[in-house]
Amino acid sequence: MKLQPGITVVKNGQLVDGTGRPAIPNAAVIITDGIISYAGPAAEAPPAPEARIIDAGGGTIMPGLVEAHIHLTYFNVSELQDLDIKFPVEYVTLQSAVNAKTALECGYTSARSGGCLHNIDVWMKKAIEEDMIPGPRLSASGREICGAGGLMDWNPDFRRIGMEGIVFIVNGPEQARSAVRKLVKDGIEWVKTYPTGDAASPDINDHHTLCMTFEEMHAVVATAHNHGLKVTGHCRATEGIRNALKAGYDAIEHGTFMDDECLDLLLKRNVPMCPGLGFELFSVQRGKEFGLSQRVLDGHQETLEAGAESCRKVLKAGGTLGLGGDYGFAWTPHGTYAQELTFFVNYVGFSTLDTIKWATLGGAKMMGREKEIGTLEAGKLGDVLVVKGDVLQDISILENRDNLLAVMQGGVVKAGTLVKPASF
Ligand SMILES: [Zn+2]
After folding, report:
1. What is the pLDDT of residues 225-272, one digit of tens each?
2. pLDDT digit string, tens, across residues 199-217
3. Which residues, in sequence order, are CB contacts of 151 under 8 Å at separation 6+?
4. From ligand 1's centre to the CA of 369, what distance in Å?
5. CA–centroid distance, residue 102 to ligand 1 (Å)
6. Ligand 1 mean position to 114 CA, how many Å?
7. How far is the CA of 326 from the centre of ligand 1 (A)?
8. Distance from the alpha carbon of residue 303 to the mean position of ligand 1, in angstroms
9. Are 80 and 50 contained in the same domain?
10. Which residues sit opposite 35 in a β-bridge?
11. What total of structural domains would you count in the chain?
12. Considering the domain boundaries, does residue 316 fall inside one?
Protein backbone atom coordinates (compact mmCIF):
# COMPACT_ATOMS: atom_id res chain seq x y z
CA MET A 1 0.00 0.00 0.00
CA LYS A 2 1.37 3.41 -0.99
CA LEU A 3 2.65 5.81 1.68
CA GLN A 4 2.06 9.56 1.48
CA PRO A 5 5.34 11.28 0.55
CA GLY A 6 6.31 14.45 2.41
CA ILE A 7 5.16 15.78 5.75
CA THR A 8 1.57 15.96 6.99
CA VAL A 9 0.54 17.59 10.26
CA VAL A 10 -2.82 16.79 11.83
CA LYS A 11 -3.58 19.40 14.46
CA ASN A 12 -6.19 21.32 16.42
CA GLY A 13 -7.73 18.32 18.17
CA GLN A 14 -7.41 16.13 21.23
CA LEU A 15 -5.21 13.04 20.80
CA VAL A 16 -6.72 9.70 21.84
CA ASP A 17 -3.75 7.55 20.94
CA GLY A 18 -5.24 4.05 21.35
CA THR A 19 -2.96 2.98 24.21
CA GLY A 20 -5.70 3.60 26.77
CA ARG A 21 -3.83 6.62 28.15
CA PRO A 22 -5.89 9.77 28.83
CA ALA A 23 -6.42 12.14 25.92
CA ILE A 24 -3.90 14.91 25.23
CA PRO A 25 -5.70 18.21 24.55
CA ASN A 26 -4.53 20.46 21.72
CA ALA A 27 -2.28 17.81 20.17
CA ALA A 28 -0.48 17.32 16.88
CA VAL A 29 0.38 14.22 14.90
CA ILE A 30 3.16 14.53 12.35
CA ILE A 31 3.40 11.96 9.58
CA THR A 32 6.62 11.84 7.61
CA ASP A 33 6.59 9.78 4.40
CA GLY A 34 3.61 7.81 5.68
CA ILE A 35 5.08 6.99 9.12
CA ILE A 36 4.20 8.79 12.35
CA SER A 37 7.20 10.85 13.46
CA TYR A 38 5.51 12.70 16.34
CA ALA A 39 2.30 12.35 18.36
CA GLY A 40 1.82 14.55 21.41
CA PRO A 41 1.12 18.09 22.63
CA ALA A 42 1.18 20.62 19.79
CA ALA A 43 3.31 22.96 21.92
CA GLU A 44 6.15 20.40 22.00
CA ALA A 45 5.96 19.34 18.35
CA PRO A 46 9.08 19.80 16.23
CA PRO A 47 8.81 22.46 13.51
CA ALA A 48 7.38 21.17 10.26
CA PRO A 49 7.70 23.86 7.58
CA GLU A 50 5.96 23.29 4.28
CA ALA A 51 3.88 20.52 5.76
CA ARG A 52 0.41 19.67 4.50
CA ILE A 53 -2.00 20.64 7.31
CA ILE A 54 -5.12 18.73 8.29
CA ASP A 55 -7.26 20.73 10.73
CA ALA A 56 -9.20 18.53 13.16
CA GLY A 57 -11.43 21.50 13.93
CA GLY A 58 -11.23 21.02 17.69
CA GLY A 59 -12.30 17.37 17.37
CA THR A 60 -10.46 14.09 17.96
CA ILE A 61 -7.32 12.59 16.40
CA MET A 62 -7.24 8.82 16.94
CA PRO A 63 -5.92 5.63 15.33
CA GLY A 64 -7.83 4.04 12.47
CA LEU A 65 -10.25 1.43 13.79
CA VAL A 66 -9.50 -2.28 13.45
CA GLU A 67 -12.40 -4.65 12.83
CA ALA A 68 -11.28 -7.82 14.60
CA HIS A 69 -13.77 -10.25 13.02
CA ILE A 70 -15.03 -9.09 9.64
CA HIS A 71 -16.91 -11.04 6.99
CA LEU A 72 -16.40 -9.02 3.82
CA THR A 73 -18.05 -11.77 1.78
CA TYR A 74 -21.30 -11.76 3.75
CA PHE A 75 -23.86 -9.71 1.85
CA ASN A 76 -26.31 -8.66 4.59
CA VAL A 77 -28.03 -12.04 4.58
CA SER A 78 -31.05 -12.83 6.72
CA GLU A 79 -30.50 -16.58 6.57
CA LEU A 80 -27.24 -18.50 6.71
CA GLN A 81 -28.42 -20.61 3.76
CA ASP A 82 -28.31 -17.54 1.52
CA LEU A 83 -24.54 -17.56 1.83
CA ASP A 84 -24.03 -20.66 -0.27
CA ILE A 85 -26.94 -20.75 -2.69
CA LYS A 86 -27.97 -17.22 -3.57
CA PHE A 87 -25.10 -15.87 -5.69
CA PRO A 88 -22.11 -17.20 -7.62
CA VAL A 89 -18.54 -16.40 -6.63
CA GLU A 90 -18.28 -13.63 -9.25
CA TYR A 91 -21.08 -11.58 -7.72
CA VAL A 92 -20.00 -12.26 -4.13
CA THR A 93 -16.53 -10.99 -5.03
CA LEU A 94 -17.95 -7.71 -6.35
CA GLN A 95 -20.08 -7.29 -3.24
CA SER A 96 -17.05 -7.96 -1.06
CA ALA A 97 -15.09 -5.22 -2.82
CA VAL A 98 -17.92 -2.78 -2.12
CA ASN A 99 -17.98 -3.91 1.53
CA ALA A 100 -14.22 -3.34 1.81
CA LYS A 101 -14.64 0.23 0.53
CA THR A 102 -17.51 0.78 2.97
CA ALA A 103 -15.42 -0.47 5.90
CA LEU A 104 -12.65 1.99 5.06
CA GLU A 105 -15.13 4.84 4.70
CA CYS A 106 -16.40 3.97 8.19
CA GLY A 107 -12.92 4.56 9.60
CA TYR A 108 -11.74 0.93 9.63
CA THR A 109 -8.21 1.11 8.28
CA SER A 110 -7.49 -2.54 9.16
CA ALA A 111 -9.52 -5.69 9.59
CA ARG A 112 -9.04 -9.32 10.49
CA SER A 113 -11.28 -11.75 8.68
CA GLY A 114 -13.51 -14.08 10.67
CA GLY A 115 -14.04 -16.38 7.68
CA CYS A 116 -14.96 -15.96 4.04
CA LEU A 117 -16.66 -17.58 1.08
CA HIS A 118 -14.53 -19.26 -1.57
CA ASN A 119 -10.99 -17.83 -1.33
CA ILE A 120 -11.97 -14.21 -1.75
CA ASP A 121 -10.11 -12.75 1.26
CA VAL A 122 -6.68 -13.71 -0.03
CA TRP A 123 -7.23 -11.94 -3.34
CA MET A 124 -9.07 -9.03 -1.75
CA LYS A 125 -6.08 -8.52 0.51
CA LYS A 126 -3.75 -8.47 -2.49
CA ALA A 127 -5.98 -6.00 -4.37
CA ILE A 128 -6.10 -3.70 -1.33
CA GLU A 129 -2.35 -3.96 -0.68
CA GLU A 130 -1.68 -3.08 -4.33
CA ASP A 131 -4.07 -0.07 -4.17
CA MET A 132 -6.28 -1.64 -6.81
CA ILE A 133 -9.34 -1.20 -4.59
CA PRO A 134 -9.85 0.77 -1.36
CA GLY A 135 -10.25 -1.21 1.84
CA PRO A 136 -8.81 -2.03 5.25
CA ARG A 137 -5.42 -3.71 5.59
CA LEU A 138 -6.63 -7.27 5.80
CA SER A 139 -5.72 -10.47 7.63
CA ALA A 140 -7.11 -13.15 5.36
CA SER A 141 -9.14 -16.12 6.44
CA GLY A 142 -10.56 -18.75 4.11
CA ARG A 143 -13.18 -21.40 3.88
CA GLU A 144 -14.09 -22.48 7.38
CA ILE A 145 -13.91 -25.94 9.00
CA CYS A 146 -16.78 -27.62 10.84
CA GLY A 147 -17.56 -31.18 11.92
CA ALA A 148 -20.18 -33.14 9.94
CA GLY A 149 -23.68 -32.46 11.25
CA GLY A 150 -22.43 -29.29 12.96
CA LEU A 151 -23.54 -25.68 12.78
CA MET A 152 -22.28 -24.99 9.25
CA ASP A 153 -23.47 -28.29 7.75
CA TRP A 154 -26.95 -26.97 7.13
CA ASN A 155 -27.90 -28.38 3.73
CA PRO A 156 -29.92 -31.58 4.15
CA ASP A 157 -28.39 -34.48 2.23
CA PHE A 158 -31.48 -34.87 -0.01
CA ARG A 159 -30.71 -31.51 -1.59
CA ARG A 160 -27.37 -32.87 -2.79
CA ILE A 161 -25.74 -29.46 -2.44
CA GLY A 162 -22.06 -29.36 -1.58
CA MET A 163 -20.60 -26.70 0.69
CA GLU A 164 -17.28 -26.25 -1.09
CA GLY A 165 -17.50 -22.49 -1.29
CA ILE A 166 -18.10 -21.97 2.41
CA VAL A 167 -16.82 -24.68 4.64
CA PHE A 168 -14.98 -27.98 4.79
CA ILE A 169 -17.24 -30.51 6.51
CA VAL A 170 -14.88 -32.92 8.25
CA ASN A 171 -15.26 -36.31 9.90
CA GLY A 172 -12.25 -37.11 12.05
CA PRO A 173 -8.69 -35.77 12.34
CA GLU A 174 -7.57 -37.07 8.92
CA GLN A 175 -10.18 -34.97 7.12
CA ALA A 176 -9.44 -32.01 9.38
CA ARG A 177 -5.77 -32.24 8.38
CA SER A 178 -6.59 -32.45 4.70
CA ALA A 179 -8.85 -29.37 4.93
CA VAL A 180 -6.03 -27.35 6.50
CA ARG A 181 -3.65 -28.52 3.78
CA LYS A 182 -6.03 -27.13 1.14
CA LEU A 183 -6.12 -23.83 3.04
CA VAL A 184 -2.32 -23.77 3.16
CA LYS A 185 -2.35 -23.92 -0.63
CA ASP A 186 -5.03 -21.21 -0.77
CA GLY A 187 -2.61 -18.81 0.93
CA ILE A 188 -4.70 -17.83 3.96
CA GLU A 189 -3.42 -16.63 7.37
CA TRP A 190 -6.22 -17.66 9.75
CA VAL A 191 -7.91 -21.06 9.86
CA LYS A 192 -11.45 -20.53 11.15
CA THR A 193 -13.13 -23.51 12.78
CA TYR A 194 -16.43 -24.29 14.51
CA PRO A 195 -15.78 -25.97 17.87
CA THR A 196 -19.35 -25.15 18.99
CA GLY A 197 -22.84 -24.37 17.78
CA ASP A 198 -24.79 -21.14 18.13
CA ALA A 199 -28.12 -19.72 19.24
CA ALA A 200 -28.92 -19.36 15.53
CA SER A 201 -29.48 -23.14 15.35
CA PRO A 202 -31.55 -23.99 18.42
CA ASP A 203 -32.70 -27.49 17.50
CA ILE A 204 -29.55 -29.47 16.82
CA ASN A 205 -26.56 -27.13 17.13
CA ASP A 206 -27.35 -24.57 19.81
CA HIS A 207 -24.80 -22.57 21.80
CA HIS A 208 -24.22 -25.44 24.26
CA THR A 209 -23.43 -27.96 21.52
CA LEU A 210 -20.00 -29.11 20.34
CA CYS A 211 -19.44 -29.24 16.56
CA MET A 212 -15.90 -30.66 16.46
CA THR A 213 -14.00 -33.19 18.56
CA PHE A 214 -10.84 -32.30 20.45
CA GLU A 215 -8.92 -34.68 18.15
CA GLU A 216 -10.17 -32.82 15.05
CA MET A 217 -9.27 -29.47 16.59
CA HIS A 218 -5.85 -30.67 17.62
CA ALA A 219 -5.20 -32.01 14.12
CA VAL A 220 -6.15 -28.59 12.69
CA VAL A 221 -3.74 -26.79 15.03
CA ALA A 222 -0.82 -29.18 14.48
CA THR A 223 -1.13 -28.96 10.69
CA ALA A 224 -1.75 -25.20 10.61
CA HIS A 225 1.13 -24.36 12.97
CA ASN A 226 3.47 -26.59 10.98
CA HIS A 227 2.83 -24.32 7.99
CA GLY A 228 2.87 -21.06 9.96
CA LEU A 229 -0.89 -20.47 9.90
CA LYS A 230 -2.93 -19.39 12.92
CA VAL A 231 -6.11 -21.04 14.16
CA THR A 232 -9.24 -19.59 15.67
CA GLY A 233 -12.70 -20.86 16.37
CA HIS A 234 -16.32 -19.99 17.01
CA CYS A 235 -16.49 -20.89 20.71
CA ARG A 236 -19.64 -20.52 22.75
CA ALA A 237 -20.04 -23.61 25.00
CA THR A 238 -17.57 -23.81 27.88
CA GLU A 239 -16.18 -27.17 26.77
CA GLY A 240 -15.58 -25.81 23.28
CA ILE A 241 -13.56 -22.89 24.68
CA ARG A 242 -11.57 -25.28 26.87
CA ASN A 243 -10.91 -27.68 23.98
CA ALA A 244 -9.73 -24.80 21.78
CA LEU A 245 -7.34 -23.44 24.39
CA LYS A 246 -5.98 -26.89 25.20
CA ALA A 247 -5.57 -27.70 21.51
CA GLY A 248 -3.37 -24.59 21.10
CA TYR A 249 -5.70 -22.14 19.35
CA ASP A 250 -4.19 -18.70 18.65
CA ALA A 251 -7.43 -16.76 19.24
CA ILE A 252 -10.95 -17.32 20.49
CA GLU A 253 -14.04 -15.90 18.78
CA HIS A 254 -16.91 -15.07 21.16
CA GLY A 255 -15.69 -16.98 24.27
CA THR A 256 -19.25 -16.82 25.54
CA PHE A 257 -19.55 -19.24 28.46
CA MET A 258 -16.09 -18.67 29.95
CA ASP A 259 -15.48 -20.39 33.30
CA ASP A 260 -12.48 -19.84 35.59
CA GLU A 261 -10.50 -22.72 34.14
CA CYS A 262 -10.94 -21.35 30.60
CA LEU A 263 -9.98 -17.88 31.79
CA ASP A 264 -6.77 -19.26 33.32
CA LEU A 265 -5.94 -21.09 30.09
CA LEU A 266 -6.66 -17.94 28.07
CA LEU A 267 -4.40 -15.79 30.23
CA LYS A 268 -1.59 -18.34 30.47
CA ARG A 269 -0.77 -17.92 26.77
CA ASN A 270 -2.38 -14.46 26.51
CA VAL A 271 -4.71 -15.68 23.77
CA PRO A 272 -6.72 -12.74 22.37
CA MET A 273 -10.49 -12.95 22.16
CA CYS A 274 -12.97 -11.25 19.85
CA PRO A 275 -16.38 -11.27 21.56
CA GLY A 276 -18.38 -10.13 18.49
CA LEU A 277 -21.05 -9.45 21.04
CA GLY A 278 -23.06 -6.54 19.66
CA PHE A 279 -24.50 -9.05 17.18
CA GLU A 280 -26.37 -10.74 20.04
CA LEU A 281 -28.09 -7.54 21.17
CA PHE A 282 -28.92 -6.45 17.63
CA SER A 283 -30.35 -9.92 16.90
CA VAL A 284 -32.57 -9.62 19.97
CA GLN A 285 -33.63 -6.07 19.08
CA ARG A 286 -34.14 -6.44 15.34
CA GLY A 287 -34.31 -10.17 14.62
CA LYS A 288 -38.07 -10.45 14.77
CA GLU A 289 -38.65 -8.30 11.71
CA PHE A 290 -36.33 -10.65 9.78
CA GLY A 291 -38.20 -13.74 10.90
CA LEU A 292 -36.02 -15.04 13.74
CA SER A 293 -38.06 -17.35 15.97
CA GLN A 294 -38.62 -16.72 19.67
CA ARG A 295 -36.34 -19.69 20.51
CA VAL A 296 -33.53 -18.15 18.52
CA LEU A 297 -34.10 -14.76 20.15
CA ASP A 298 -34.11 -16.37 23.61
CA GLY A 299 -30.82 -18.07 22.78
CA HIS A 300 -29.28 -14.77 21.66
CA GLN A 301 -30.45 -13.15 24.91
CA GLU A 302 -28.74 -15.89 26.94
CA THR A 303 -25.58 -15.55 24.84
CA LEU A 304 -25.65 -11.78 25.19
CA GLU A 305 -25.73 -11.85 28.97
CA ALA A 306 -23.12 -14.60 29.35
CA GLY A 307 -20.90 -12.97 26.71
CA ALA A 308 -21.00 -9.58 28.42
CA GLU A 309 -20.03 -11.22 31.71
CA SER A 310 -17.14 -13.05 30.06
CA CYS A 311 -15.87 -9.78 28.50
CA ARG A 312 -15.87 -8.09 31.90
CA LYS A 313 -13.96 -11.06 33.37
CA VAL A 314 -11.31 -10.97 30.63
CA LEU A 315 -10.91 -7.19 30.98
CA LYS A 316 -10.58 -7.42 34.76
CA ALA A 317 -8.06 -10.25 34.53
CA GLY A 318 -5.87 -8.29 32.09
CA GLY A 319 -6.59 -10.26 28.91
CA THR A 320 -6.61 -9.00 25.33
CA LEU A 321 -9.77 -8.25 23.36
CA GLY A 322 -10.42 -7.23 19.76
CA LEU A 323 -13.70 -5.54 18.90
CA GLY A 324 -15.93 -6.12 15.92
CA GLY A 325 -17.79 -9.04 14.61
CA ASP A 326 -20.43 -10.50 12.39
CA TYR A 327 -21.51 -7.42 10.51
CA GLY A 328 -22.97 -8.50 7.17
CA PHE A 329 -26.29 -9.90 8.34
CA ALA A 330 -29.61 -8.21 7.53
CA TRP A 331 -29.89 -6.80 11.05
CA THR A 332 -26.18 -5.86 11.25
CA PRO A 333 -25.49 -4.58 7.72
CA HIS A 334 -22.07 -3.51 6.47
CA GLY A 335 -21.46 0.13 7.34
CA THR A 336 -22.78 -0.17 10.90
CA TYR A 337 -19.58 -1.57 12.44
CA ALA A 338 -18.98 1.30 14.87
CA GLN A 339 -22.13 0.54 16.83
CA GLU A 340 -19.99 -2.20 18.42
CA LEU A 341 -18.08 0.52 20.29
CA THR A 342 -21.24 2.26 21.50
CA PHE A 343 -22.56 -1.12 22.62
CA PHE A 344 -19.42 -1.85 24.65
CA VAL A 345 -19.67 1.47 26.44
CA ASN A 346 -23.43 1.51 27.00
CA TYR A 347 -24.29 -2.16 27.48
CA VAL A 348 -21.14 -4.00 28.60
CA GLY A 349 -19.98 -1.07 30.73
CA PHE A 350 -16.42 -0.57 29.42
CA SER A 351 -14.89 2.90 29.71
CA THR A 352 -14.65 4.83 26.45
CA LEU A 353 -10.84 4.81 26.58
CA ASP A 354 -10.75 1.02 27.09
CA THR A 355 -13.27 0.52 24.30
CA ILE A 356 -11.19 2.58 21.87
CA LYS A 357 -8.04 0.73 22.93
CA TRP A 358 -9.57 -2.66 22.15
CA ALA A 359 -11.09 -1.33 18.91
CA THR A 360 -7.64 -0.20 17.72
CA LEU A 361 -4.66 -1.74 19.56
CA GLY A 362 -6.65 -4.87 20.50
CA GLY A 363 -7.49 -5.60 16.88
CA ALA A 364 -3.90 -4.86 15.84
CA LYS A 365 -2.68 -7.42 18.39
CA MET A 366 -5.13 -10.01 17.08
CA MET A 367 -3.70 -9.39 13.61
CA GLY A 368 -0.16 -9.72 14.98
CA ARG A 369 0.61 -6.22 13.62
CA GLU A 370 0.72 -4.14 16.82
CA LYS A 371 4.23 -2.94 15.95
CA GLU A 372 2.87 -1.23 12.81
CA ILE A 373 -0.70 -0.19 13.60
CA GLY A 374 -3.24 0.23 16.40
CA THR A 375 -1.89 3.30 18.21
CA LEU A 376 -0.67 6.75 17.25
CA GLU A 377 2.98 6.58 18.30
CA ALA A 378 6.20 7.47 16.53
CA GLY A 379 7.35 4.71 14.20
CA LYS A 380 3.90 3.37 13.35
CA LEU A 381 2.05 3.70 10.06
CA GLY A 382 0.05 6.89 9.59
CA ASP A 383 -3.33 5.15 9.87
CA VAL A 384 -5.26 8.00 11.43
CA LEU A 385 -8.88 8.91 11.98
CA VAL A 386 -9.76 12.59 12.28
CA VAL A 387 -13.17 12.99 13.89
CA LYS A 388 -15.45 15.98 14.18
CA GLY A 389 -16.38 16.12 17.87
CA ASP A 390 -15.29 14.59 21.16
CA VAL A 391 -15.44 10.78 21.04
CA LEU A 392 -14.80 10.58 24.79
CA GLN A 393 -17.99 12.52 25.48
CA ASP A 394 -20.03 10.55 22.95
CA ILE A 395 -18.56 7.41 21.37
CA SER A 396 -21.60 7.06 19.09
CA ILE A 397 -20.43 9.93 16.87
CA LEU A 398 -18.17 7.31 15.24
CA GLU A 399 -21.27 5.60 13.86
CA ASN A 400 -21.98 8.50 11.51
CA ARG A 401 -19.61 8.77 8.54
CA ASP A 402 -20.40 12.48 8.26
CA ASN A 403 -18.42 12.94 11.48
CA LEU A 404 -15.25 11.50 9.94
CA LEU A 405 -13.19 14.36 8.54
CA ALA A 406 -10.35 12.15 7.31
CA VAL A 407 -9.60 8.44 7.17
CA MET A 408 -5.89 7.98 6.51
CA GLN A 409 -3.78 4.95 5.64
CA GLY A 410 -0.03 5.45 5.58
CA GLY A 411 -0.69 9.20 5.64
CA VAL A 412 -2.85 9.09 2.49
CA VAL A 413 -6.32 10.56 3.03
CA LYS A 414 -8.60 7.85 1.62
CA ALA A 415 -12.04 8.92 2.85
CA GLY A 416 -13.83 11.42 5.07
CA THR A 417 -15.60 14.70 4.46
CA LEU A 418 -12.31 16.49 3.67
CA VAL A 419 -12.07 14.37 0.52
CA LYS A 420 -14.10 15.66 -2.37
CA PRO A 421 -16.71 13.10 -3.46
CA ALA A 422 -15.62 11.19 -6.53
CA SER A 423 -17.40 12.19 -9.73
CA PHE A 424 -18.46 9.59 -12.23
ZN1 LIG B 1 -18.38 -14.61 12.37
Report:
1. 999 999 999 999 999 999 999 999 999 999 999 999 999 999 999 999
2. 999 999 999 999 999 999 9
3. 194, 196, 197, 198, 200, 201, 205, 209, 211, 234
4. 21
5. 18
6. 5
7. 5
8. 14
9. no
10. 32, 381
11. 2
12. yes
